[in-house]
């Protein structure tokens, strides 16, 4: 169901009032719901306190899309960076309740008002010895915080074992993003950067590639410690609930497309300041109207069902899901980074 | 259907690409780096230079050039042309001999290596047995005499290099009839020199290092004469008639010996120490040239008094009462004399002396009074003072060209009028299609204008900016000011002078408007000079303005160098480009970008702190903009200055060393030393490598942020007449791009010409774009309604370009180090982009728009971007759709200075430094190709009698 109503931008009020308003508008006064919105980067982010509510209203341009889900069967993994670039899937999954109905997630922690900082992706298509890690620099103020070096690795070739040059992680900065994810470690060999193989490239080239992709860095590594690898056959023992074989092909396909979209999206963000005025994102399309209205219109989408699966894979692994959740806890609400536009002031 | 085809698979486009693009390294300009050997063929009138990296380069008449490279990349020790052949033999420091030939292919000559050979001794003999020290190509053209360290002379047949063992001259055979007391005192030791008798090819003179000289009869295999020298021998030279020869020695003396049938063991005629009586350095090479008037020319290298002038690199010329010791700026590698080689001529009559010094080639006219230098058409010392920047201007209008040449000719009055004496071969290359200028900025504050139209890069005009400033340099500090009676009679020759007195004078950016003759030059201490071409000398005051780029920043302290002090009052300038405006940036940081608009009479300049716009018509600063991030302490304080001051102190200590150094010049001594040094260096390199393996280099992976250092560094400035505010009115604009990925656009109001002096130029910031990837912006370009880059200022006024299309909408192209991006104008929204770094890991170092014409039809040409990356690749990228057309590997990625020095031309050629003194020229175009195309014909032999031929003698043993 869709609802559209307006709010005064300058006086958004408190979250409690807003929550009440939503319940009122949708005529569901006693149903617990999760509230989310799409931010300017196309991410589905939660609204559950005054701060992120105000933030959400301030980002309305001029519409603010709000999503509500019934709390008991909400899909937490739907929140986070790039979630709305996969909107079709989200919507498709959200709108088609019969498709892949599953038992509810075991909720490890509430995705309060934070965004993911990292994830393991493409587990299905990679060899078990490899790990593809995505670092969401954009969602955090933390430094990426790692160093790479030259080294040599041993490859199995038809001629036997062969020593070949490789790129390795040499250091993790304490407190940096890389270290806090727990997904990268010193001496992990870097195999790919955003889908491009690093073999044959120099350390400086790989450094430049990583920095150029730093807002959405996807590195494929061969972990030095191979003991924590995913063992695919015992997948069902995982608690992710995403293990049905039938979902694999589509999930893989999604990842591939998401990955590309995400990359395209992630730097379409140049800021233009016209005539010393307000900073703006450079519009990609010509549709955006220029003047900001004092009244914010909201487009609401109410849905009480939950989806089947999502390609985001942070819950694919037990141990990593745990560590990510921990990370979420300590990485408390901080949406400053959303305001990249204000870095530049005149 | 077209859009379903994958890019790059359109067969029509692929064919067109083949007609448009082609990569060639065409010619090397400048002076070979680290030359090590010199050879000359009076028969071919060609000169050959070998280098320490194993290159060999042949030069004849201007435009006649050949190059070869020894596979081994070893130092070329000696070069000898085979008499009356298009062949030469090189000796490398690995003791290998190489035979090279000039062969004709489809009308043009090519230099090819034919054969290589290493002399092998009998089994078990020490390596010194076969270590070659002297080479003599015999006038019979098929024998090569090889003197060795052991004292033996081996004979090899050409071209097979087969050793004729029965002809070997062993030192035992030579010593048979030498008196015992002489023999006991010294053994033969190594062969220093081999010289064929000028009249009788059956006799060769063999000189041994301990002083013994013998005349050897080749037919009877026996010694005919013994000359018992008492001094360590350096070199030998026959007089033309073969009645006398001259030997030169380690103690700075030379000796004349008579050769007659009466006395088989003659006493010396004359023994002289020209710069005695105090101990002198060795004379390493000597010529004795006869003339009609009877007075010989005695020309020798070295021999200076050891204590007071031992560090000079000199060659002395004595002719009767005239004596000059030419004092070279760097070590003399070798030299030769050009003289009459006609076998029938009675006298040598030398005409010119050609000297190869380590850093330059100097030719002295021996015919004209005062022995002036000859202006060389090639082998220019680009690095007289270190090159700090380059700027290329294509298609110079004839008028400006002539004015520059005329200004230059006034500077070159002290040169000889002699035509270039090395004139072998024929240049077949067509005349250059257009007049091109290459401008190089130098560390000493000069700008040199080179004719880059053809194969021979030569100096047209030299501009110095020093006159505007007060510097520490003492104008009286001139080593040349020696009085008339000074002894030795030293005279400084050559232009190589790498010692800049004030590094702040260094030129960093150059912009020449070829239509108006306005030139803007910017330097290391924030100085920006605007100049105008004047055909006369003039004395005038240079207007002076200051641009405070930190206007609104408080409480900083610039720790870098001070700005340059200016001269008060009028300054006298010679004809040529004369400065009329000086803008000094404050703080005086290096000027990092410069743009000149000669039609609007505006000059824009940027440093690490910001940028400014100056109206050089009204001589008024229009505005300044600070781009500095307040937290950027490094840029505030100016860290470069620390580097500079270190450099300065290094320079001073080098200068001290240079003045005090007593060069050890003896071959074995020097050879031994260099090899030791090389070994030590190699060891050091190895150690360094090992250390690197122990503690590998690591690289930090971190997203760029606004707080990074040097984000405010202004990388590029660009003037454009375009639609900045709305799509109905276009206006002049100034664009600036920074290291932090910011682009600023300023709307300019330039008064119309009739009120140009009355109303001020106004500027207002219209846009600011922050690229989210924050990579340095290296290029900004506006494309008109037809997607053609906007023309240069005054180009349309001179009918050399179509007017830009102001009807269709303009587009903005921003090139950062990481990606190329096209935006719409006037409303900036991103249209398309090409990512380089994210996908390939390469970064853009240089970018330019180049026009490529088809080699098939004259009526098709297109504009593309030529991009050089940090990996040394050149990519051609189409406009306006930013599609990669083709990629060529060009420069080694380790060659950072080569990549930094690269400059593209407007028609798809380019230059980069392959050494401090050499530009490699390359071409990306099928149409514009400047490369040597020449032929060397074997001149008809005037006589079958080789007895009188002197070429074998001419290829004297190289000594240094």
Automatic annotation (TrEMBL), chain A:
InterPro entries: PAR6_homolog (IPR051741), PB1-like (IPR053793), PB1_dom (IPR000270), PB1_Par6 (IPR034868), PDZ (IPR001478), PDZ_sf (IPR036034). Residues 1-71 form the PB1 domain. Transmembrane segments: none annotated. Residues 228-253, 326-346 are annotated as: Disordered. The keyword Cell cycle applies. Pfam families: PB1, PDZ. It is found in: Cell junction, Tight junction; Cell membrane; Cytoplasm. One of its GO terms (cellular component) is apical plasma membrane. Keywords: Cell cycle, Cell division, Cell junction, Cell membrane, Cytoplasm, Membrane, Tight junction. It comes from the Eukaryota. Residues 328-339 have a biased composition (Basic and acidic residues). Residues 234-252 have a biased composition (Low complexity). Its main location: other. GO terms for biological process: cell division; centrosome cycle; establishment or maintenance of cell polarity; regulation of cellular localization. Residues 132-225 form the PDZ domain. PANTHER family: PAR-6-RELATED, PARTITIONING DEFECTIVE 6 HOMOLOG BETA. Belongs to the PAR6 family. This is PAR6B protein. The lineage of its organism: Eukaryota, Metazoa, Chordata, Craniata, Vertebrata.
Automatic annotation (TrEMBL), chain B:
Its main location: cytoplasm. One of its GO terms (molecular function) is GTPase activator activity. Residues 660-669 have a biased composition (Basic residues). Residues 273-372 form the Lethal giant larvae homologue domain. Residues 660-679 are annotated as: Disordered. It holds the Pfam family LLGL. Interacts with GPSM2/LGN, PRKCI/aPKC and PARD6B/Par-6. The complex is enhanced during mitosis. Interacts with DCAF1. This is LLGL scribble cell polarity complex component 2. It comes from Crypturellus soui. The gene is Llgl2.
């Amino acid at each position: 169901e869709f609802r559209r109503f307006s709010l005064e931008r300058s006086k958004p009020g408190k979250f409690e009032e807003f929550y009440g308003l939503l319940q009122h508008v949708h005529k569901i006064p006693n149903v617990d719901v999760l509230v989310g919105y799409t931010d300017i980067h196309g991410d589905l982010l939660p609204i559950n306190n005054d701060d992120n509510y105000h933030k959400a209203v301030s980002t309305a341009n001029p519409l603010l899309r709000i999503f509500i889900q019934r709390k008991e069967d909400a899909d937490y993994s739907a929140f986070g960076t790039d979630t709305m670039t996969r909107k079709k899937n989200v919507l498709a999954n959200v709108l088609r309740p019969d498709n892949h109905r599953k038992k509810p997630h075991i909720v490890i922690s509430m995705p309060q008002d934070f965004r993911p900082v990292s994830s393991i992706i493409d587990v299905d298509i990679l060899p078990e010895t490899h790990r593809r890690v995505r670092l969401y620099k954009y969602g955090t103020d933390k430094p990426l915080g790692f160093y790479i070096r030259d080294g040599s690795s041993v490859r199995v070739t038809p001629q036997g074992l062969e020593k070949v040059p490789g790129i390795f992680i040499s250091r993790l900065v304490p407190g940096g993003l890389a270290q806090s994810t727990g997904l990268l470690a010193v001496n992990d060999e870097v195999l790919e950067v955003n889908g491009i193989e690093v073999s044959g490239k120099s350390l400086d080239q790989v450094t430049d590639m990583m920095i150029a992709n730093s807002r959405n860095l996807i590195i494929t590594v061969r972990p030095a410690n191979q003991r924590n690898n995913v063992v695919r056959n015992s997948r069902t023992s995982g608690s992710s609930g995403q293990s049905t074989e039938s979902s694999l092909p589509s999930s893989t396909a999604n990842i591939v497309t998401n990955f590309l979209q995400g990359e395209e999206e992630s730097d379409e963000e140049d800021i233009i300041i016209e005539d010393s005025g307000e900073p703006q994102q450079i519009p990609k399309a010509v549709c955006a109207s220029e003047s900001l209205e004092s009244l914010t219109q909201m487009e609401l989408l109410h849905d009480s069902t939950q989806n089947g699966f999502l390609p985001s894979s942070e819950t694919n692994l037990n141990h990593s899901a745990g560590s990510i959740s921990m990370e979420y806890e300590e990485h408390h609400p901080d949406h400053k980074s959303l305001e990249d536009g204000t870095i530049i002031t005149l | 259907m077209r859009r379903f085809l994958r890019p790059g698979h359109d067969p029509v486009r692929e064919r067109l690409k083949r007609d448009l693009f082609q990569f060639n390294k065409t010619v090397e300009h400048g002076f070979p780096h680290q030359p090590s050997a010199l050879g000359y063929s009076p028969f071919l009138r060609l000169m050959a230079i070998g280098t320490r990296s194993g290159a060999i380069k042949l030069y004849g008449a201007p435009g006649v050039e050949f190059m070869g490279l020894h596979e081994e990349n070893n130092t070329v020790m000696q070069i000898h042309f085979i008499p009356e052949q298009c062949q030469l033999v090189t000796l490398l420091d690995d003791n290998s001999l190489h035979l090279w030939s000039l062969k004709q292919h489809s009308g043009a000559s090519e230099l090819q290596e034919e054969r290589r050979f290493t002399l092998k001794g009998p089994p078990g003999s020490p390596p010194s047995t076969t270590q070659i020290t002297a080479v003599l190509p015999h006038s019979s053209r098929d024998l090569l005499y090889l003197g060795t360290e052991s004292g033996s002379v081996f004979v090899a047949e050409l071209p097979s290099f087969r050793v004729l063992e029965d002809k070997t001259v062993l030192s035992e055979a030579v010593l048979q009839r030498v008196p015992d007391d002489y023999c006991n005192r010294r053994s033969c030791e190594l062969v220093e020199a081999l010289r064929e008798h000028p009249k009788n090819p059956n006799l060769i003179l063999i000189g041994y290092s301990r002083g013994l000289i013998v005349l050897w009869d080749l037919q009877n295999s026996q010694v005919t004469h013994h000359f018992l020298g008492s001094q360590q021998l350096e070199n030998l030279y026959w007089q033309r008639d073969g009645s006398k020869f001259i030997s030169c020695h380690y103690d700075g003396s030379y000796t004349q010996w008579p050769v007659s049938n009466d006395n088989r063991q003659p006493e010396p005629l004359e023994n002289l120490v020209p710069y005695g009586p105090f101990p002198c350095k060795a004379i390493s090479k000597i010529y004795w040239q006869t003339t009609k008037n009877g007075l010989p020319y005695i020309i020798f290298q070295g021999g200076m008094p050891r204590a007071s002038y031992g560090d000079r690199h000199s060659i002395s010329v004595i002719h009767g009462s005239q004596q000059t010791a030419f004092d070279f700026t760097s070590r003399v590698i070798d030299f030769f004399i050009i003289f009459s080689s006609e076998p029938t001529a009675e006298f040598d009559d030398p005409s010119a002396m050609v000297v190869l010094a380590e850093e330059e080639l100097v030719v002295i006219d021996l015919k004209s009074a005062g022995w002036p230098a000859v202006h060389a058409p090639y082998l220019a010392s680009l690095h007289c003072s270190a090159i700090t920047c380059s700027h290329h201007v294509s298609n110079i209008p004839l008028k400006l060209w002539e004015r520059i040449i005329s200004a230059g000719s006034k500077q070159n009055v002290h040169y000889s009028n002699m035509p270039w004496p090395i004139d072998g071969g024929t240049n077949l290359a067509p005349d250059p299609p257009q007049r091109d200028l290459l401008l190089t900025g130098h560390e000493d504050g000069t700008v040199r204008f080179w004719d880059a139209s053809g194969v021979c890069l030569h100096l047209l005009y030299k501009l110095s900016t020093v006159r505007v400033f007060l510097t520490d340099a003492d104008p009286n500090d001139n080593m040349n000011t020696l009085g008339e009676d000074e002894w030795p009679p030293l005279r400084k020759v050559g232009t190589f002078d790498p010692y800049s007195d004030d590094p702040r004078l260094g030129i960093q950016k150059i912009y020449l408007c070829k239509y108006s003759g306005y030139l803007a030059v910017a330097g290391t201490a924030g100085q920006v000079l605007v100049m105008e071409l004047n055909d006369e000398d003039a004395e005038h005051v240079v207007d002076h303005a200051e641009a405070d780029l930190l206007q609104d920043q408080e409480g900083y302290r610039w720790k870098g160098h001070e700005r340059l002090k200016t001269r008060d009052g009028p300054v006298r300038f010679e004809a040529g480009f004369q400065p009329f405006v000086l803008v000094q940036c404050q703080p005086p940081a290096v000027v990092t970008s410069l743009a000149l608009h000669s039609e609007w009479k505006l000059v824009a300049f940027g440093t690490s702190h910001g940028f400014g716009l100056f109206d050089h018509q009204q001589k008024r600063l229009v505005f300044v903009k600070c781009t500095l991030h307040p937290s950027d302490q490094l840029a505030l304080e100016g860290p470069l200055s620390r580097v500079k001051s270190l450099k300065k102190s290094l320079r001073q200590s080098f200068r001290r060393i240079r003045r005090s150094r007593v060069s050890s010049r003896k071959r074995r001594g020097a050879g031994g030393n260099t090899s030791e040094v090389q070994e030590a260096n190699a060891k050091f390199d190895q150690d360094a490598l090992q250390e690197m393996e122990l503690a590998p280099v690591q690289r930090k992976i971190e997203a760029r942020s606004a707080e990074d250092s040097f984000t405010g560094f202004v990388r590029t400035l660009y003037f454009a007449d375009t639609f900045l505010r709305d799509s109905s009115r276009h206006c002049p604009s100034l664009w600036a791009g920074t290291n932090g990925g910011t682009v600023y656009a300023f709307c300019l109001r330039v008064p119309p010409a009739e009120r140009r002096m009355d109303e001020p130029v106004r500027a207002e910031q219209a846009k600011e774009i922050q690229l989210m990837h924050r990579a340095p912006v290296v290029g900004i370009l506006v494309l008109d309604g037809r997607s053609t880059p906007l023309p240069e200022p005054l180009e349309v006024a001179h009918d050399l370009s179509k007017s830009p299309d102001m009807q269709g909408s303009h587009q903005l192209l921003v090139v950062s180090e990481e990606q190329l991006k096209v935006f719409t104008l006037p409303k900036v929204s991103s249209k398309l982009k090409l990512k380089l770094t994210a996908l390939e890991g390469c970064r853009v170092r240089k970018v330019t728009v180049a026009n490529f014409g088809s080699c098939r039809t004259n009526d098709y040409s297109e504009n593309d971007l030529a991009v050089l990356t940090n990996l040394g690749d050149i990519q051609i990228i189409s406009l306006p759709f930013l599609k990669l057309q083709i990629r060529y590997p060009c420069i080694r990625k380790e060659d950072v200075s080569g990549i930094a020095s690269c400059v593209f031309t407007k028609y798809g050629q380019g230059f980069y430094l392959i050494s401090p003194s050499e530009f490699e020229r390359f071409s990306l175009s099928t149409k514009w190709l400047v490369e040597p195309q020449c032929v060397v014909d074997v001149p008809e032999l005037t006589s079958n009698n080789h007895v009188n031929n002197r070429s074998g003698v001419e290829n004297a043993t190289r000594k240094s």
